[in-house]
Amino acid sequence: MNGPHMRPLLAIETSGSSLGVALHTDQGVVFERDVTAGSIHGRALAPLIDECLRNHGLSVDQLEAVAVSVGPGSWTGLRIGITAAKTLAWSAGIGLVAVPSFEALAIQALPRVSAGTPVMTLRDARSDGVFAAIFCETSGRLERWMPESVLSLERAVTEPQRILEERGSSSLALCGDGVCMEALSKSARERELELKNELENVWVHLPDSQHISGRALAEAGWRRLLAGEVKRAAEDIHKAAPLYLRASGPELKLKAKLAQPG
Length: 262
Fold this sequence. Notes:
By secondary structure, the protein is an alpha/beta fold. It contains eight helices and ten strands. α3 packs across α6 and α4 crosses α5. The longest helix has 18 residues.
């Protein structure tokens, strides 16, 4: 993506079970490390950031900004990544780019679908159903056809159908958690909609799309950086927070306990 000269961007992805760190420069992504074997964000993030910077002879204050995935996603993972990004940005006097996790996941999926095909991103919301959003890239611009939402399995089928009809589209690529794909496929069959493996005017499941890569987060962050969507004032950096679409598990348990009689 062309644009004004920018110093490198460090990207941190901790919103899911995987961990990703990447470095984006004017030449594109020049460093990427992804760890998908277990949730090791707390102990592995700092060493990966150190490796990234050392490999390119950089100190944190030589970066333009740090981009971080802000959800929806794992509460613990989001807190680890956002805290690290805010600390780096504030201490080094560089910018902070908050990247919605689904935006990065959609950018990761785009090379695998035909031009103009909308992408639905999914993550497990447990008893609430699924976290979902729909994106479509037209003329090089990523548009949200449906904002990040919490949907029941039924609405995760009916709402996209409604949006596709409004937009005059019948194709849809789905990416995200495997458990969501299985549950959504079952819900779709109940409504006589079959999820396919080939994209021919149908809904298609993109396999191996559960993890958001550091590269995708870096590319999404770079787009936002070039668009000027960066926090530079210390006050704004400190206000950066996860994109929470519902209460946490502990909060829900507390609410249920308080609602019990006696």
